[in-house]
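Page 47, continued from p. 46.
Same chain as before, 535 aa.
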Amino acid sequence: MKDMLLYLLPIVILAVGGFSLMLVDAFQKEEGGLAIPTAMLHFASGAACLALWNYAGSPADLARAASAFNGWLAFDRTTLFLDLIIALGGGLASLLAGSYLNEHKLERGEFYTLITFASAGCMMLAGATDLIMVFIGLETMSLGVYAMTAFRRTNARSQEGALKYFLLGSFAAALLLYGSALLYGMTGHTDLAGIRAALAAPLDVPGLAAQEGGALALSVQQTVRDRVVILAMVLVIAGLAFKIGAVPFHMWVPDAYEGAPTPATAYMAVTVKAAAFGAMLRVLVGVFGDTTGAASLAGGWPGLLAWLAVASMVIGNLVALSQSSIKRMLAYSSIAHGGYILAAFVVTPRAELLPGGEGTVGQSAAASVLFYLLAYAVSNIGAFGALMLAGSRGKEAVSYDDVAGLGKRHPAVALALSFFILSLAGIPPMVGFFAKYNVIRSALEANYTWLAIALMVNSAIGVYYYLRVLVKMYMHDPAPGATRAEPMVSPGIWLTLIFTAVLVLVMGAMPQTFFGYALEAVKLAVAPVAAAATP
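Result:
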């Protein structure tokens, strides 16, 4: 039991740290000074994930660890990989917040408590193997993020974004809860393994088949159960799709991203997505990843996700083209990136062996999801960090016009922003290129050529609005009398940008190494999935 408790260490560090930060904030005389301790808590949690990655035992050991906690949490490398992304995103966002909040006179200790508890909720959601734990993790994460969105109390945009996020988030949570209740009613289980086993077994009512007309009644009950399960699956997908900002559940994204303090926006874009995609991977592949129709492209959840993926890519990219605010552009691009990741989900049920024997098509697609989340995390944190650095109090870099001429006036800041924008656009040798490449390759391996074409076309559209930022910085001068963004002086942000830039370059230089880690993380999670119907 002592060894099994070690697997809870990443969550425990954040939970205990959150309470400690709360006490420190209550008794300290002056605001501030909590950014570095909060970042250290997240980095310690990430270090625990790395240590546990090497410590992780056999599948039997991990199964015993999960059973010790009633099967509510998974103790495997998929969880550790996602937890590492969450810890990295939370730690870097905390470092960014220390400079940003102080510069804009928003420094209050509760921000760091909120981000720490939200990260603990993200980890619970990413590792949840029970629908009850999915809901607990979701709400723990969401409450902290709602409050961070509304952190600028006197700002109307902040309050509007938080209110929309809260109301729509509550509605989405209700959909998820209702879908979970239907699954419990049909199977008698809330744990994912129990639900999967119950759905795989034919419906059996003792004594009914022997009665007159019993076979017909049993067939009708089986049909009713199948229809209710389909409804439950759709509701669960809708609840999780809201958290990743997929179309048509994206209405909250631009207002929340624009209204929130920029460190909170960076945090939402990285950690909330990682946790929600992790939960979606476990629920869809772990419960509905079978050959009974639920995992077929024609009539199952892959077909539904394919529509969500294409809609998110197209609408996210097209609306981003018309934005005048850089933060809103990044919000819509976040919707498009969610669509790219969803495209990989479409392929995850496929179990044909890859040439070379390094796994299955489904495992490669699931690894593409994890690799994309890691690449997007470091690129996005860097992009938002550079955007924060570009503007000081009263002279923030919000719109395209704000950064006009920045390349001439402050070349180092412009270079930093350009670097991460190019990674998000998918320009080699940045890691963003290889993240998209792996998703496109997964679609081609599964013979979903149309999906690969949609990915490539939308990626090309995305390059246009990303390059608009560079054009404004290097090829335009500010309009006469217009407000010019003036960079803040912040060694903390510069250190964060240097660290993320190194990760972007290292991952771009060795993509197969990091993709190999992602593939190793998902092999056990995706291995039980049988081959799905061919397209």
